[in-house]
Amino acid sequence: MTRSRGVRLWVAGLGMLLLFGSALADPQRLDDSMSHTVPPNVQMQWLPVARGQTNAGAMEAWVTVNIRIDTRDWVGRSGRVYMVLPRDEASTMEAVWTTQGRMQPGRLISGERTLVFAGTLRGATLEDQFQVRLRSQADWQSQTRRLNFHFEFDAD
Q1: In the 8-state DSSP scheme, what is residue 51?
Q2: Is 78 strand, coil or helix?
Q3: Does residue 20 lie within any of the structural domains?
Q4: pLDDT, tens digit, 9 for 90 and up, residues 78-97
Q5: pLDDT value, residue 43
Q6: Residue 132 and residue 103: Cα distance in Å, rounded?
Q7: What CATH number does the domain containing 65 carry?
Q8: How many other C-beta atoms lie within 10 A of the C-beta of residue 114?
């Protein structure tokens, strides 16, 4: 085997590996249209600033989110469910939450995704209740903004 042929085979093998790896990491967006917040609308509030604190200009809000994700197409499948918060060009949002125990508590920054469930999906829905603290800096410009969280499933 010539050296150039060996290099071509190695590059072709690497390309196949990359294609195979990307096929495995093909997140499927899940239907969470039955999820809702309590209250339905929440107002961001300025955080008090004390001497020496670094949160000057920070805003926050607390909201309960009743999570109900349609998983009927994935019943019996093993994998991971991620919560996604798309990037917001106007400001950075941080969400921190606790759960009732079916899903995992966590933290998420806009533009990222984080694991909220790993295992086998046993039923047609995945449900939990999140107590969410939303926090933003002073660049949060609008009185009315919609946060577009969504969920993705990566099958094993």
Answers
A1: T
A2: strand
A3: no
A4: 999 999 999 877 778 899 99
A5: 79
A6: 13
A7: 2.60.40
A8: 15
